[in-house]
Amino acid sequence: MSIRLRLTLLYTAILALTLIAFSVILYLTLAQTTLGVVKDTLADEAKRLLSERSVDFVRRGLVITVPSSNRAIQNTFVQTRRLDGNIEFRSPNSVEADIELPLQAQVRTRVLEAGYAYDFATIRNTRFLVYSKPITYSERVVGVLQVARSLEDQDRALDVVRRTLLAGSSIAAILAFGIGWVLAGTALRPINRITQTAHAIGAERDFGRRVSHAGPQDEVGRLATTINTMLAALQGAYRQEAQALQAQRRFVADASHELRTPLTTIRGNIALLQRDPPISSTDRTAVLADMVDESERMSRLVHDLLSLARADAGRQLRRETVPIKPLIEDVCRKAKTLGPDRTIICAEVHNVAILGDPDALKQVLLILLDNALKFTPAPGEITLSTTVRNGRVRISVRDTGIGIASDTLQHIFERFYRGDSSRTGGGAGLGLAIAKALVDALDGTVSVASQLGVGSEFMIELPQAPLVGADTAEADAIAVNM
Ligand code: ADP
Fold first, then answer.
1. Which of 30, 114, 185, 430 sits in a 20 to 30 Å window from 394, CA-based?
2. Could you say which DSSP state residue 409 is in?
């Protein structure tokens, strides 16, 4: 059963129950009130007849009659009976309509015991209310006075009320069902629309589509917003997955290609060495040197691939407080030996620490320095500096080398990407990719600013760690001029 039908049936049932309860209470109250009025009238009449001592059996022995002047109330039938049950007197209207009010034995007992009794009697298809009261003379009960009224009018009126309530309640319930059906439909329409859109999105896998909802931010509005937020997240994840898959495919293709080149060269060289007659000793020396070069290139490449795979796999990097001053000094020393014909400046080394892995950070700095040395011809200048801002430590490696063209700048962190300028460098285009993967794994960022022919600056930013028990004041800048 649909929610729409369930809701409609529910509020129709609630309304119907309310109407039934209301109608029953109204009907019973009305019936009681009208009957009460008749009862009071009859009791008053009987009291009046008796109190006015209108019963004139005194003079005529056992004859119990009511003077005609006292039979004034219209539609009230008066009758007296002797104790043996015989009718003694009937008012003229009773005689005229041939109405004889019954007095059953148990009613008579009740009259004598309680002093009065009400009873219903059906005479010629008409209901009567009969009030009976004992007639006493000299403190002795000598007969029973009965006054009665037809309940025809009351019954008819109550019948009309009953029919009206029944018809009114039925119409109200039917109307409520109709209106409820329309209202529930209107309220649920946006949900139907959302369901249809969500179904279409799922079927077409079109996560770029959104559920439209122009209404207020009520339950339905919030549902639409939640679904849209979920779709946006889904779209992002889907796109990311597609990109990752594509990147992985490209990576495997590039890696195979990179490994195939030195292998082909080595195989060619082996064929040369196997020649009969053998090649000259000068050629052999050249071929062997070539093979050594290619083997080294291949082992470098395999080493780089391994580093990258580990960084990708979320290799367990340590999270410890690393004071950067000794680290940078160490890297500077290495740089000086690697590029003795360039000026290496280690400036503004703050006495601060970062939260990370010292080996990973060293590897990143060496990659940046290696590139700076590779692309900065002598007598260029390479500067290492640190700044601290907003709880982040920034380490910058600036060179006055060949610089990077703006169109290649956006690609340099991609795997296997090499700029034209690097042809002489001999790298596989994995250095910056490894650096970025490591910095990402340390919750840091890496960025670059470069100008062709002027130089480049690579900046890494890492979260600062409190340097326990150390002087955090700025240390003197160390400048090492080579
Ligand atoms: P590789 O290991 O081949 O050097 P990288 O990923 O380290 O590869 O660098 C990618 C490319 O970025 C290089 O081929 C080069 O074109 C460019 N590049 C990196 N560092 C510098 C720099 N300091 N100056 C100029 N170009 C650079």
1. 430
2. H
pLDDT digit of tens for each residue in the chain (482 aa)? 888 899 999 999 999 999 999 999 999 999 999 999 999 999 998 888 777 655 554 445 445 566 555 444 567 898 888 888 888 888 888 888 888 999 998 999 999 999 999 999 999 888 999 999 998 877 788 888 899 999 999 999 999 999 999 999 999 999 999 999 999 998 888 888 888 988 998 898 888 888 888 878 888 889 889 989 999 999 999 888 988 888 788 888 888 888 888 899 899 999 999 988 888 989 999 999 999 999 998 898 898 888 888 777 766 778 889 998 889 888 888 888 888 899 999 876 778 899 888 988 998 999 999 999 999 998 899 999 999 888 899 999 999 999 999 888 999 998 888 876 544 456 788 889 989 988 988 889 999 999 999 999 999 999 998 876 544 444 333 333 33
Question: What would the two tokens of residue 326 be?
Answer: 């000794």
Nearest CA to ligand 1 atom 21: 371
Neighbours of 104 (CB within 10 A): 12
Instruction: Name the residue with the closest Cα to ligand 1, atom 4.
Output: 427
- CA-CA distance, 145 to 50, in Å (whole number)? 9
375 ligand 1 Cβ < 6 A = yes
Q: At what angle do helices 358-374 and 431-441 cross, to 10 degrees?
A: 150
pTM exceeds cut of 0.70: no
372 CB within 6 A, ligand 1: yes
